[in-house]
Write a structure and sequence with these properties.
Blueprint: H1 13-28, H2 43-54, E1 65-70, H3 73-94, H4 97-103, H5 114-117, E2 120-127, E3 129-132, E4 135-138, H6 142-159, E5 163-164, H7 173-178, E6 185-194, H8 210-213
Antiparallel strand pairs: 1-2, 2-6, 3-4, 5-6
Helix pairs in contact: 2-6
């Protein structure tokens, strides 16, 4: 293993506080959107966001992820039909009543038109193990690593001025099949990406207080 000297940018303490506050305000403005415009988005923005996600830290640097950018309208329609089939089953049979009660605040149901309207769908896959000439090799902390990369992806897209939705139809095995992914991969997250619709609305949500989520020991 080769090493190199770390190139680390330093700032004054005042500058650090200012940068942290600016980033806080940027991220607090991010909202989950379910109503998208079909306005085209330059593909380079999407690629750069995915490259940002791929730079995330991972267990033993295994980078156990793959990102599929879906822009083909026929494939998006196929994904929508399959997702709605699973979601209809979820809303009518699978989900316990308390889960549905928690979802009521969002006004959601099994209809998912955004899967066709949004100009891109980014499907994040987690690689449970590697496939190489020696066969299977274990990946470490896969869910944690892919979760961190997904966070990088969402913030990069928001920073670029795009809206996103973290969509997790359950189960998601149809994505593995439609997108023809290898057997070592499983769909982790489905992210519609684009501009919000002109009259898009979002629910008024109350976040937990700082004292509820932060402890200083």
């Amino acid at each position: 293993m080769a090493f190199q000297k770390l190139e680390f940018q330093t700032y004054s303490e005042t500058g650090m506080v200012d940068r942290s506050e600016q980033y806080l305000q940027l991220i607090k403005a991010r909202r989950t959107v379910r109503e998208f415009s079909d306005k085209p988005v330059p593909i380079d923005i999407i690629k750069n966001a995915v490259k940002t996600a791929a730079s995330a830290p991972s267990g033993a640097n295994k980078q156990p992820w793959h990102f599929v950018i879906v822009k083909d309208q026929t494939v998006k329609k196929e994904i929508r039909l399959a997702a709605e089939k699973e979601e209809k089953e979820f809303y009518t049979h699978r989900a316990p009543h308390y889960w549905l009660e928690d979802l009521n605040q969002f006004g959601t149901d099994w209809h998912k038109p955004f899967l066709e309207t949004a100009p891109y769908l980014i499907v994040v896959f987690r690689q449970r193990y590697e496939l190489d000439k020696q066969g299977q090799r274990k990946n470490y902390y896969v869910n944690e690593s892919v979760g961190i990369a997904s966070g990088f992806l969402l913030t990069a897209l928001h920073n670029a001025g795009l809206a996103t939705l973290t969509h997790t139809p359950s189960p998601m095995g149809f994505l593995d099949k439609i997108l023809k992914r290898p057997k070592n991969e499983r769909a982790f997250l489905l992210i519609p990406v684009g501009y919000p619709a002109k009259d898009a609305q979002v629910p008024i949500l109350v976040k937990k207080s700082v004292s509820d989520v932060i402890s200083i020991v």
